Structures are given as C-alpha cells and as structure tokens.
C-alpha cells in the first residue's frame, strides 16, 4: 500500500470519527435531562444526598492528593 492511499484512508477515518464525536456532543444534552429525571425519580432524597456526599468526599480526597504531590515536588 503506498503512502498516498494510506493517507487518504486515514483522512477518511478521521473525518468519520470527527462526525461521530460531533453527533455525540450534540445529542448528549438532549437526553441528559431525561436521564437525570429517570435516575432521580427512582431514588429518594436521602439516597441522592448520600451519593452527593460521596462524590464531594471523593473530589476532596483527589484535591488533597494533588496538593500533596505538588507540595512534595512530584
């Protein structure tokens, strides 16, 4: 296979991948509201608060680890 043929095929694949990514970015917000509504309707407030607290705790741990690495020069 020569270089021109390979470049042409790679461009075609890259174009198709970009089209799929663009479609996913446009379509995702349309379903995000429906997904959130379906997820929150199936849980009560206590479960949602527990999940929120777990996510915030995990984010705090990640921030502490990153700050520790930065302070140690790593």
Describe the structure.
By secondary structure, the protein is an all-alpha fold. The chain is built from 2 helices and no strands. The chain has helices spanning 3-41, 45-71. The radius of gyration is 22 Å and the shape is flat.
Structural class: mainly alpha
Structural shape: flat
Strand content: under 5%
Q: How many separate helices?
A: 2
Total E-strand runs = 0
Helical percentage: over 70%
Chain-averaged pLDDT:
79
Poorly predicted ranges = none
Instruction: Give the helices and strands as they follow along the chain.
Output: HH
Radius of gyration: 22 Å
Spatial gap, N to C terminus: 45 Å
Query: Which sheet architecture does the biggest sheet show?
Result: none
In short:
By secondary structure, the chain is mainly α.
Key terms:
single chain, 74 residues
SSE order and pairing:
Elements: H1 3-41, H2 45-71
């Amino acid at each position: 296979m020569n270089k021109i043929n390979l470049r042409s095929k790679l461009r075609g694949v890259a174009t198709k991948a970009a089209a799929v990514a663009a479609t996913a970015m446009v379509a995702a917000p349309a379903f995000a509201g429906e997904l959130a509504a379906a997820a929150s309707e199936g849980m009560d407030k206590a479960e949602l608060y527990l999940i929120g607290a777990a996510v915030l705790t995990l984010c705090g741990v990640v921030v502490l680890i990153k700050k520790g690495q930065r302070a140690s020069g790593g």
